[in-house]
Design the sequence.
């Protein structure tokens, strides 16, 4: 379940090279598991992996691994709770 104003990017949109001509900012896939809830105005960056059933708090910036069934929030997003479940209905 995705809220609004979410940004996802699998690259930096421009290459950066070191003095030897090797690219230092390669692109990376984003992997999102089943039944994930991503909150309002989140940013999900290249290389992010969000496990099934996870919840990402509003305004978070995700760039690493978020395990399945975790709640993560912040900049950078960090796990603040584990072993949760969620559903769309209010009851």
Sequence:
């Amino acid at each position: 379940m995705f809220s609004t104003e979410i940004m996802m990017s699998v690259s930096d949109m421009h290459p950066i090279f070191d003095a030897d001509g090797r690219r230092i900012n390669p692109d990376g896939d984003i992997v999102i598991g089943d039944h994930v809830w991503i909150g309002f105005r989140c940013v999900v960056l290249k290389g992010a992996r969000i496990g099934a059933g996870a919840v990402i708090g509003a305004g978070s910036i995700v760039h690493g691994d978020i395990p399945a069934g975790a709640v993560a929030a912040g900049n950078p997003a960090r796990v603040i709770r584990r072993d949760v479940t969620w559903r769309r209905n209010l009851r």
Summary: The chain has one domain: 1-11+27-84.
